[in-house]
Design brief:
By secondary structure, the chain is α/β, with parallel strands linked by helices. The protein folds into three domains: 96 residues, OB fold (Dihydrolipoamide Acetyltransferase, E2P) (Beta Barrel), CATH 2.40.50.140; 162 residues, Rossmann fold (3-Layer(aba) Sandwich), CATH 3.40.50; 90 residues, Probable gtpase engc, domain 3 (Ribonucleotide Reductase Protein R1, domain 1), CATH 1.10.40.50. It is built from eleven helices and 13 strands.
């Protein structure tokens, strides 16, 4: 290993380290040490595209081949945000491996195999962008939040295009609506046009790595440009008819912010399928799980059981029925996804289905007076 590279690695705790703006710290330096001894160069993946990726290294951004980090398991494929060990030279240069991920934002794919897809790695803040130019979809926000909590990152809901809701009282009500589905999560209304809320957002993203998430037209690229202080990301106008965007961003890009911190901008997500996110769902619906602890029966389904604390809260207007419906929907979806890769859970679901089917037939027979048609 060259003396210049040794000095770069030995200064891992210093803000003068070339990779410090991209999140390099003492922990990463310690994990990378064995690869440094092999003469490999550290870097962070800023973009992945068709078997190659751009990696920012102490010597600048290099193009590297990902042949050695492209396993059959899509959950182990290198992605934006990974810390990589790269060949020091050569043509082509190869990514030899990547460090264990501290966090990973994962969703299920739209394929029939329901595989997991990693959207971003080593993320500290998951910023869920929601446009105020269209009607709020609270169910989708809950879905994003479940994945964000499951990833290990801290979620933040950013309501964009606040200038399109000129009435401050109206904005306040919209923020309150989102806060009801995001317990424990900050909700911030911002406008890239007027600058409202942007100072608060800039302060949040200055600490660590943030990923921007949301559907097309949510204003993610506009937010990225405002935080960067330049038009680095292409922006297109949304359609007047429905306020939807046109997938301006087509790849995931990692960008160092001038005020500190790192930002990963992602394409608009049409589908946000859960992927083994039971803990995340529980965090999003923490008030329901807390109420369930006071139900008379530990396996209460919150339907018609006596002593159900959840049903009591709904009847007292302390809990919206919509929240319980959404909670059940996401739990069922997550269970189906997990069952596709967990043989034991599949067997349990099959037994449960057979039991419920038998109980239903018995109830029908009893209703008919024991006569079977």
């Amino acid at each position: 290993m060259s003396s210049s590279l040794s000095s770069v690695l030995s200064s891992s705790s210093s803000s003068s380290h070339p990779l410090a703006p991209y999140g390099w710290d003492e922990g990463i330096a310690a994990e990378f040490a064995p690869y440094a001894e092999q003469g490999l160069v550290p870097g962070r993946v800023v973009r992945v595209d068709r078997g190659q990726c751009d990696v920012v290294t102490p010597d600048g951004v290099v193009r590297a081949d990902t042949a050695f980090v492209t396993p059959h398991d899509p959950m182990r494929v290198i992605c934006t945000g990974d810390w990589a060990a790269v060949d020091p030279d050569g043509s082509p240069r190869y990514v030899r491996t990547y460090l264990p991920r501290r966090t990973a934002f994962v969703r299920s794919t739209s394929s029939q195999r329901s595989e997991g897809q990693i959207l971003a790695a080593n993320v500290d803040h998951a910023i869920i962008a929601v446009s105020l130019a269209v009607e709020l979809d609270l169910g989708r926000i809950e879905r994003f939040l479940a994945l964000a909590w499951e990833s290990g990152a801290h979620p933040l809901v950013v309501l964009t295009k606040a200038d399109l809701v000129p009435d401050a009282t109206g904005r306040s009500y919209l923020v309150q609506d989102v806060e009801t589905v995001a317990p424990g999560v900050p909700v911030l209304s911002v406008s890239s046009l007027t600058g409202e809320g942007m100072d608060v957002l800039a302060a949040v993203v200055s600490g660590g790595t943030s990923v921007l998430l949301g559907v097309s037209g949510a204003g993610k690229s506009t937010l990225a440009n405002a935080l960067l202080g330049e038009d680095a990301m292409e922006v297109q106008a949304t359609r007047d008819a429905d306020g939807k965007g046109r997938h301006t961003t087509t790849t995931r890009n990692l960008l160092a912010l001038p005020g500190g911190g790192v930002l990963i901008d992602t394409p608009g997500l049409r589908g946000v399928g859960l992927w083994d996110a039971a803990a995340g769902v529980g965090q999003v619906f923490s008030e329901i799980e807390e109420l369930a602890e006071d139900c008379r029966f530990h396996d209460c389904a919150h339907e018609s059981e006596p002593g159900c604390a959840v049903r009591a809260a709904i009847e007292d207007d302390a809990l919206p029925e919509r929240r319980l419906d959404s909670y059940r929907k996401l739990l069922r979806e997550n269970q189906r996804i997990v069952a596709k890769t967990d043989a034991r859970l599949r067997a349990e679901l099959r037994r449960d289905w057979k039991l419920r089917h038998a109980e239903g037939r018995a109830a029908m027979e009893a209703k008919r007076g024991g006569r079977v048609r």
